[in-house]
Write a structure and sequence with these properties.
single chain; 99 residues; mainly beta; Immunoglobulin-like; 5-stranded antiparallel β-sheet; 4-stranded antiparallel β-sheet; 9 strands; C6 domain-containing protein
């Protein structure tokens, strides 16, 4: 698969946590190879924590109010994150009360 054929991320909304707003910023909209994911809450006055979760179980990052995490497209046209690389099949933006 060519990098230009890398699919855009999909996100799921089936969870026991509140859903946040998940946005993606690609380095090139026509042929993306890098992405920055941003998870934020719709109302900052709620003071919730935001988390980006990959493949339903891998918490990539957690932050107060919002958080970001980078990803890249590998030679097989799959989105990968972290070290060692984790192939991403789906993403979630979850919100929770601070502990």
């Amino acid at each position: 698969m060519l990098l230009s054929e890398t699919p855009r991320f999909r996100f799921k909304e089936i969870t026991q946590f509140a859903d946040g707003i998940l946005t993606f910023t690609y380095d090139n909209i026509n042929c993306p190879t890098n992405v920055v994911m941003n998870c934020s809450e719709p109302d900052p006055t709620l003071q919730l924590n935001a988390a980006i979760v990959a493949n339903s179980v891998n918490f990539l990052t957690v932050g107060s109010l919002s958080t970001t995490f980078p990803g890249t497209c590998n030679a097989q046209g799959q989105w990968v994150v972290g070290t060692p690389p984790l192939i991403v099949t789906d993403l979630e933006c979850l919100l929770t009360n601070p502990t």
